[in-house]
Amino acid sequence: MNTQLLLIQVFNGLVNGAFYALLSLGLAVIFGMLRIVNFMHGALYMLGAFAAFALGQAFGLGFWPSLILAPIIVALLGMVLERTLLSRLYGLDPSYNLLLTFGLTLLTQDLVKQFMLSHYAVSSAPYTPPAALAGVVNLGFVVFPKYRLFVIGLSLVICLLTWFVIEKTRVGAIIRASTENPGVTRAFGIDVGKWVTGVFGVGVGLAGLAGVLAAPIYSVEPYMGAELIITTFAVVVIGGLGSILGSVVTGFAVGVLAAVGAALYPPIANTLVFILMALVLLVRPSGLFGLPEGAK
Amino acid sequence: MTVLPRTAARTDRQRMSRAAWLIGLGVVLLILPRLIYPVLALDILAWGLFAVAFDLLFGFSGLLSFGHAAFWGTSAYVTAFLLSHGQSVPVALLGGTASALLLAVPIGFLSVRSIGIYFSMITLAFAQMISFVALQWTDVTGGENGLQGFARPSFLGLDFSDSITRYYFCLVLFALGFSVAYRTVRSPFGQALQAVRDNEQRAQSIGFDPGRFKFTAFLISAALAGLAGSMFTFGHGVVSLDVLNWRTSGEVVMMTLLGGTGTLFGPVIGAGLVLLLRDTLTTANLPVGIVTGLVFVLVVLFFRRGVVGTVQHWLRRR
């Protein structure tokens, strides 16, 4: 394989990695703070893409306003779900959250499918990238679509920003305190319940954002999150459940490794991540960046 | 904590209640193909045993496997492969079950070391790996098309082209599989398993090795799921990638929850209810995913004991 092709694969891998990173980052934030394994994450990613498409159809909104609005819609929906449904299961085994969100996934996917069929008479729809990001960039050694470079860049910025807020700011300190010791945090006059809802909103908002970013690359389709969520779970297991740094680094790394692996031996493309997961589990059951406590 | 001896009256009542469930279930299963069409009845047997296998792990060992489709599906494919290569029915069924058991050795070894939600995600990922292999390995699995049109040679003079014969043949297999699960749960091994489920540290401190118990339970569960998957293929005469899809893993969880986890009888009833519901929805042309998703959500939120669990709870309180 020549260097040119390898570099293209590395960049393509980074694009997939950007989606893995954004999704597993959202999962990490939600799990780290709320101990919820959100199976619905893939469906919410799909809803982000679908919201961008529907906003365009209904109000003629283009990519840029949708990039802001669609994640907000997804975040609000997530917060409503957290308040009305998920909050009923706090205190029970986390398995029940997984099962509830699994049920919600089936429901959401088929609702969107019915809606797309009845309103637009399509089962999947293309979404055009904005004019400003059309075309390709010559990086000197390789020519690459502008829009894909934008996806990599924006995803990196968002990941860094999330990490910074949680690890370095006062807001992050409150969130961490609320989750580690809700009782004491409440005693300091902080409304823990509101923070928990907010964190859930941000986590699923990240999934919504990934969905909008993915819409111009893949077409908008009710089951677009179904396979992705499984891969994301594998990424999360490799990185260490609940580790923010782990999810971002592993997200990008898995994207690149899978793309390069696929160039060398195509059938391995979809299984490589699971093989990696099995290997990591053998050596470090709590994941590369996870603390042993994270296995609990 | 001192363990108080259970009163004879209470043990008697439990035994009676268990016998009542057993007889009730047996009678329903015996007349089932007269009530609904036989292929659907056989589906209930296969999915019912699959759910029992899952419940052995979830209800009695506290391990929520989200990848049980791996064993069900692998066995389904192996059975279809053996039948299409001219093997006899018992060889195909045994081969399918054995393949699931073999597959469970590495997967179980790697996954029972993890607990809680970690275990769920790992089993899910392994199942997905198997599903990709089935998609890629077209020579053996038929890829997207699956395998179909294989013969089901007669065995002991039984003509398997008749769906009623197939049903009763599978009913015998079901009874075998169910009694294995039943004996496992009632045995000292099963009691120790439940002790590990309830308090792993305490079980360890009195000398049990939790890892070994969970691993053994995993193997039994996978083998039974394999037998069920084998019955499913044998009943339908086709196998497709659906058997390895993660929705399949989710569906068996739903059946078990709806029927009642940790009850063994419940999962069979749950499987029956889900399949009958799906059958009704398909014939009425209603969106299956929306309704099953909704049922799933409602069961998790408001009906966690399931049908059998609720009835047992209600009887106990009287």
CATH fold name of chain A, please?
A: ABC transporter involved in vitamin B12 uptake, BtuC
Measured by DSSP, the beta-strand proportion of chain A falls in: under 5%
- Based on CA atoms alone, the radius of gyration of chain A comes out at 19 Å
Give me the number of helical elements of chain B: 14
- Tally of discrete structural domains of chain A: 1
Low-pLDDT windows of residues of chain A:
none
Shape of chain B: globular
Alpha-beta classification of chain A: mainly alpha
Distance separating the two termini of chain A: 43 Å
Average pLDDT of chain B, rounded to a whole number, is: 85
Residue windows where pLDDT falls under 50 for at least 5 positions of chain B: 1-5
State the secondary-structure class of chain B.
Answer: mainly alpha
Continuous helix count of chain A: 11
Pfam family, one (chain A): BPD_transp_2
Protein name (chain A): High-affinity branched-chain amino acid transport system permease protein LivH
Family (chain A): Belongs to the binding-protein-dependent transport system permease family. LivHM subfamily.
Membrane topology (chain A): Multi-pass membrane protein
Q: What report would you give on this structure?
A:
Chain A is 71% helix and 2% strand. Chain A has 296 residues and is mainly α. Chain A has one domain (3-295): ABC transporter involved in vitamin B12 uptake, BtuC (Orthogonal Bundle). A two-stranded antiparallel sheet of chain A has the order 1-2. The radius of gyration of chain A is 19 Å and the shape is globular. Chain B is mainly α and 318 residues long. Chain B has a two-stranded antiparallel ribbon with strand order 1-2. The model of chain B is unreliable at 1-5 (pLDDT under 50). Classes of the chains: A mainly alpha (296), B mainly alpha (318). The A-B interface holds A 37, 85, 88-89, 93-96, 98-100, 102-111, 113-114, 226, 230-231, 233-234, 236-237, 241, 267, 270-271, 274-275, 277-278, 281-282, 285, 295-296 and B 64, 66, 110-111, 113-118, 120-122, 124-126, 128-129, 132-133, 135-136, 246-247, 250, 253-254, 257, 287-290, 292-297, 299-301, 304.
